[in-house]
Structures are given as structure tokens and as C-alpha cells.
Amino acid sequence: MASLKASLVAVSFIVLVLAGINLYLGYSGNDLLAQHYMTDGEWTDSSCGGCHMGVYEEVAESSHVQRDIAQWEPLTNYNVDVQGEEQWVKEYGRYNPGGGELEEYGVDIDCMSCHEQYGLYDAEKRAMAFESGNFSAANDAAMEDAIPVVQQDPLHVATYTLDVLTPLPMLVTFHDAVNAAPTRTSCIDSCHEMNVPTTAVMWASEDYEEYDVHSEVNCVECHNTEEHNIAGSEIPVPATDNDQINGEQGESVHGELSSMKSCEAAGCHEGISHGPIADAHLEFLECQSCHIPALPGGKLPGTTPPLKSFNWSSGERVDSYRMENFTPQLAWSDGVQESEIKVPDSKNDSNVKLAPFNVVTGSWWDAGQDPDILANPDTSASKGDPIPIPEVKAADSNGDGNVTSEEMQTYDGDNDGTPDYPNAVLRQVDLHYKLGHNIAGPETGMAEPLMCDDCHGVPASETLQQVHFEVRPDCLTCHEVRPVVDWAALGYDSDPAETDPPTNFSAKTIDITIPGAKPPEVEREPAF
Fold first, then answer.
1. b/e map of 467-488 (b: 16 or more CB within 10 Å)?
2. Stated pTM of the model
3. Largest Cα–Cα distance in the chain?
4. Which residues contact 203 (CB under 8 A, 6 or more apart)?
5. Which of 405, 374, 419, 200 is nearest to 292 (CA)?
6. Each residue of 461-508: pLDDT tens digit?
7. Is the separation of the CB atoms in 133 and 113 below 8 Å?
8. Looking at the chain, which terminus has fewer C-beta neighbours within 10 angstroms, N or C?
């Protein structure tokens, strides 16, 4: 008996020592244990790949990773061929999760940019590493503060200790505490704060719940994900790939693309009715059109005020901002973004609905080689041939900081005696940025959702009809706030709800019926 007790004591002592060693190694960040317990913030085939077979390859082919560095867009006006790919990585690599074209710069896919759960992922440190050219250290820099916290978390401390009694770490206890589905905070802080100037979304605000009825909804609940392809409000497809789009949410060069969850989907607003007339509008009107009635102006949390315009005409971007609250503009959209130039569809296009947009006027120089751009520089959906920024700056012959059409059209950068851009034209395009956030409800939002008279009522008199469809001055000539809808711009020659005699739409109400809703309580006077 004495020898048995001695053996048990010895075994207990050995287990205790091993537990202590395991605890010390895990707590101090031993490389092997860090991989084993997923506290180093990096993918390894040995630890992650054992359960998530094929996921790394799936992510590597996803639309977030497979982004074309060379793709031009008006806001950045960056020409990779002239300004260099490495400089692009310095300036914009922070918004890329790694992998894809960044692999050759030593930047692997950074799973933790989306999946870190402690709220300590430092996107700014990652951005600073990119800006300094220290690309390979960017992902590690983002997790520098988070890793010690994860390794020393009480949950992990207990797991290190107990794991000597088990053949495998107790994954169930800590996996989702470290690596779970993306949260709204990770989506915003890592990447999508960059969308605030063009969409005026308030999701970075501490009081976001006052602006959006969906403030407590996690992004991935609406932005459906298939094979790590995350749905957006529009499918971004370059014009050259239009023939590869099939159906409303279709297929692209990246394969099957997810669609956004519908407002009417099960578990969301299924079965809700606004009455037969309002419900009929859903055939050609997106829900957001009425439920995003206003957007905030002025300084927004974490960034600049919403953009009103940007101008590249001098070779440096000059911005103007919306300093007052403003209304979105309704325009036609089929849900597919066919070009880098964000212009709306037309009333006669297939599968279009009215949707809300923030309209930002962008200006930049084009070489004028596309006949459509020469004829319609401000309305053409063609990307054309944007003149690189260094060339625009060099065309400023008198150095006054203002590049004129004459200077741009006579510029001879290669000194061959022939102007480089004889047909140069300055484009001024109303770019439409689609909106999907800041959703208003009866008690939430900057304003009440739109009612009938917010859109209809122009034909109330012949004078109003003439002003809105024939004379057509700038809306702000008469209105203090630009109206949400311009029927003439949408392709109509009269208000589609015009009646004879005119209807007083301000007297119309919209009643909401919610299936299974609790009936209103009736207060009664006491019987005695």
C-alpha cells in the first residue's frame, strides 16, 4: 500500500511538473505551442489545415484576395504601369488581406484581419508597415499586441495546464474565442472604413445604433458568403467580363458569387406588408430607397466628411465635402457594376430597380481615344484612357498649378515634336456610390422613412409640371434640400403617379402589417 501511494504521489508530481512546463511554454509563446493552440495568428497546414482542409486554397481564390492591382478607378486615379506596382502596394496594400498579387511582396493571406476576436488587431500598424515598404512584416505588426493577450488569456492558461491529460488540445473550449466569424468591428477597422467618405455610413460611430436599425446585426448575416466570396450590394465585374455574367447574381471570372440576403428572407422581414400599393412598388424599388431618407454631413467618425466632389485636373486630388446633412439620390440599378465608372443604369435596361446612391462628382483627364468619351465625356460609362497623374503634372508648362486644356493637348513628354494627348478632355462624371446602411425605422435614423409625397406630387399643377420636366433648373434653386427623386433624370416625362384630378399625396399614409405581431394593448378604465 505504501509503495502504491508513493507511486501515485510520484505520478501526480510528474504530471504537475509537465503541466507547469506546458503552462510556462504556452504562456511565454513557444513557437510549437503557439501553432498548436492557434495563438500566433498565422495559418499552418499542421494545425489549421487538419480540420479546415482545402480552406486556404479556397480563400486564395476568393474575390477579396484575387484583386487586380492594375485595375484603375477614379478615386485613386492610380496608373500601375506608370507609377509602379510597388508604390501601389505601399499606398493601398493595407486594404488587401494578402495573398494573390501581394505574395511576391512577402505578404501572405492574413486570416486574422477578419477572424481575430479580441478586438486587438491593429490595422494601423499593418498600414504603417506597408507605407514604410516593410511588406513582409505587415501581418505580424497587426497582431503584435494581440498575441500576448491571447497566449496569457485565462482560458488558454487553463487549457495549457489540462492538456497534459489529453492527447489533443481542447479545441472546443477556445477555438471560437480566438478565431471565429468576422465581426462588424473587424470589417470596419481592417478595410471598410475607407467606404465612409463615399457612402456616409456611420458604422464607426459610438452611437451607430441611433442611425441604423441594423446596428446590432453582424455583417455576415446579410452579406452571404460562399467559399469565402462575400456578397456585396453590387457585383463588381469589369466591362470586358460582361459576357461572363449569367443571371441576376450570376457567375464571374471568380466563379459563383454570393448574393446579398434579401430583406424578405426568412428570419428577416418575411411576410411584412406595407399595403397593396406600397408593396407593388417593390417590383421596381429597393427597400433601401425609402429606408435611407437622409445621410449625415460634416466630420464623420474616423475619417473625413462625405465627399461631394474630387478633382484631379491639376495632378493632385482636390476634394470638396458635404458639411450639412443631405439626401441620397434615386437611380436605376441592376445590381451589377460593369465598369470602373460608377454611372447608373437606365429605365429601359433589364432587371433594374430604383436604389439610393450618394452622388460624387469626379474630374480627371482622359486621352480622348474613345469616340464615346469624346462625344459624351461626362456621361459615358466607358473607362477610356485616363492620363497618368505624373503626365498631368508635367503638362503644367507655366507651373501655376492649373493644367488647362491647351497645356494638356499640346504636352509633348517624349519630345518627339508631336503632342502626346491632342484629344485630351477633362471629364466631370457624377459617380453613383450605392447605399445599403444607415437604415431608418419608426424610431431610428436621421429621418422618417419616405412617404408618398416625398416622391410624388409634381403634377399638382401645370406650373410644377413645366418646371420639373421642361425648364429643369437646379433643384436647389427652389428646394432647401435636394429632393430624393428627379423623375425627368430617371427617364420620365411626367410623374408616374400623375392623376387627373391631381392626388394629394401628403394625405396618404402607409400602414405596416407584421405577421404574428403582438396586438396593441388597449387601456381600459377600471370597472370600479
1. ebbeeeeeeeeeeeeebbbbbe
2. 0.86
3. 109
4. 184, 188, 192, 196, 212, 215, 437
5. 200
6. 677 767 777 777 777 778 777 788 888 889 988 888 888 788 888 888
7. no
8. C
Query: CB-side exposure of 152: number of CA atoms within 13 Å?
Result: 6
The DSSP annotation for 380-403 comes to ------BPPHHHHHHT-TT-SS--
Tens-digit pLDDT profile for residues 380-404: 999 999 999 999 999 999 999 999 9
Look-up: residue for cell 481564390? 61
**Type of residue at 273:** S
Beta bridge pairs of residue 365: 426
Q: Could you tell me which residues come within 8 angstroms of residue 8 by beta carbon, excluding any fewer than 6 positions away?
A: none
SS3 assignment for 305-342: CCEEEEECCCCCCEEEECCCCECCEEEEECCEECCCCC
Contact by Cβ (8 Å): 342, 431: yes
The grid coordinates listed for 246 are: 449569367
State the residue for C-alpha cell 448574393.
259
378 CB contacts (<8 Å, ≥6 apart)? 427, 428, 429, 430
Cβ-Cβ contacts under 8 Å for 43 (sequence gap 6 or more): 49, 56, 108, 109, 111
* Residue 352, burial from CB neighbour count under 10 angstroms (0-12, 13-18, 19+): middle
DSSP state, residue 467 = I
Of the candidates 178, 149, 173, which has an alpha carbon nearest to the alpha carbon of residue 163? 173
| CA atoms within 13 A of residue 512's CA, in its CB half-sphere | 10
Contacts of 466 (CB under 8 A, 6+ apart): none
Distances (CA, A) of 281 to 14, 168, 175: 74, 57, 46
Grid cell 384630378 in the structure block, residue: 501
Whether 300 and 314 have beta carbons less than 8 Å apart is answered as no
Q: pLDDT tens for residues 48-94?
A: 887 888 889 999 998 889 888 888 999 999 999 999 999 999 999 99
CA atoms within 13 A on the CB side of 488: 15
Which is nearest to 351 in space by CA: 291, 284, 294?
284
Hunting for cell 486587438 — which residue is that? 120
Residue 262: Cβ within 10 Å count: 13
Q: What are 167-170's contacts with CB under 8 Å, separation 24+?
A: 169/36, 169/37
By residue count, the chain amounts to: 528
Rounded CA-CA distance 408/130 in Å is: 33
CA 180, 183, 187: angle at the middle one, nearest 5? 120
- What is the rounded distance in angstroms from the CA atom of residue 353 to the CA atom of residue 373? 26
Q: How far is CA 55 from CA 47, 112, 405, in A?
A: 13, 14, 52
Cell numbers standing for residue 56 = 486556404
Residues 6+ apart with CB under 8 A from 502: 457, 459, 460, 461
